[in-house]
Amino acid sequence: MSRTARIELDGKSYEYPVVEGTEHELAIDISKLRAETGYITLDDGYGNTGSCKSAVTYIDGDKGILRYRGIPIEELAEKSTFIEAAYLVIFGHLPTIEERDRFATILMDNAMIDESMKKHFDAFSQSETHPMAITSAMVNLISGYEPDGGNIRTNEDMEAAAAKLMSKVRTIAAAAYKASIGEPIVYPRYDLRYAENFLHMMFTKPYLPYEPTPAVSKALNLFLLLHADHEQNCSTSTVRMVASSQANLFASCSAGVNALSGPRHGGANAAVIEMLEQIRDSDMDVKEYVRRVKDKEDGIKLMGFGHRVYRNFDPRSKILRAAAEDMFKELDVTDPLLDIAQELADTALSDDYFVERKLYPNVDFYSGMILRAMGIPINMFTVMFAIGRMPGWIANWKEIHDDEKNRIYRPRQIYVGPTDQHWIPREER
Ligand code: CMC
């Protein structure tokens, strides 16, 4: 039975359809509201606004559920690889053996970036440019080397473009790091798989070969898989916004990299490590730090805690906490920051301030520890997130691209600036 919502405005009544998702999420479709009433809705931060219908990822924040294309994240984390999960996210189904092999071949064929692109990295050499800035610039630049990049007509074109972007962003990320420390770029190897190849390009030095260990490769695969998509977050909405203007895949995803760079989004995993280091290096103990957070001293927050959507627990953080413990055991690493992190989590989870506000560790609370144990430098943490999130951005770009009825994203606003002003001659101001 179709349901409607009624809105009373200025003595008149208007009806709007209720839309139900496949997981029974409910929304009021107000797309005709302005035309019929002259009113718009106001929703600062979009917390109550569904900006699109999407079939990629489902989250139930209260129950701590995350599913890619219907499959629970826990199952994928246990049984899948990043590349298989990426294929699922982008194309909507788990790849057959033939599809997986074809995708892997295109990934491998595109592992190199155009040789002439190297000169752009040279310009950044030892300039202390943040690798995230280099990554977004270089992802954008791929369009310059792929004049046909925006011209995706068939499934095969889409498959090629997706694999190209996923493969190149990994090479770009490692090269961005090398450029930022003034070392020569390391070329990909054709005998290594996706995660191993990244580790090779990151850590091989001209005088020192590097062989990734299975424990580190496994942890990296898991890290990337857990970040592959997360519904309409800030960067994914940015990608959709840019895509709605029919900007090409590379330009749209480069905008996603920039949106991800902020500390409230992708930058949080680095902020967690900085916070733990601050506690380690100061006289302050964990209890004192938590007291300062609760008193909102200097606006400090417990980084890696809280989430706009999860109000119970973040399923990714549960998986990563266990993986971090396994990895530390397997590598026989001890890290005092991990002890501080555990103490901080235990203190916060039993404190009324956090319990009442439903603040739990999010994915970034443990991902920073995992990246640190792999030897990934802190300024690369957000870049790692960007490599992982690429399938989600591509999938959301594809949804916009495939939807013939898609309109350009163009929200409205409530103007609160001055009215009726006039230009004043300069000498009278
Ligand atoms: N530490 C202390 N207090 C907090 C925290 C925190 N991490 N997060 C929220 N609060 C408080 C906030 O001050 C507010 O208190 P009050 O009711 O007294 O004003 C209350 O909890 C509600 O918070 P909010 O600001 O309405 O929450 P939000 O949904 O706007 O923000 C958030 C979500 C993730 C930006 C925020 O929790 C935060 O800044 N967390 C720390 C940064 C972080 O870990 N970010 C990574 C997010 S997960 C990665 C991803 O999926 O992108």
Give an overview in words.
It is a single chain. By secondary structure, the chain is mostly helical. The protein folds into 3 domains: 4-50, Rubrerythrin, domain 2; 73-261 and 382-393, Citrate Synthase, domain 1; 268-374, Cytochrome p450-Terp, domain 2, CATH 1.10.230.10. Helix content is 52%, strand content 7%. The strands form 2 sheets. It has a 3-stranded antiparallel β-sheet with strand order 1-2-3. The chain is globular, with a radius of gyration of 23 Å. The relative contact order is 0.12. The structure holds carboxymethyl coenzyme *A (CMC).
Which structural traits does this protein have?
binds carboxymethyl coenzyme *A; 429 residues; Citrate Synthase, domain 1; mainly alpha; 52% helix; Rubrerythrin, domain 2; single chain; Cytochrome p450-Terp, domain 2; 3-stranded antiparallel beta sheet; globular; 6 strands; 3 domains; 18 helices
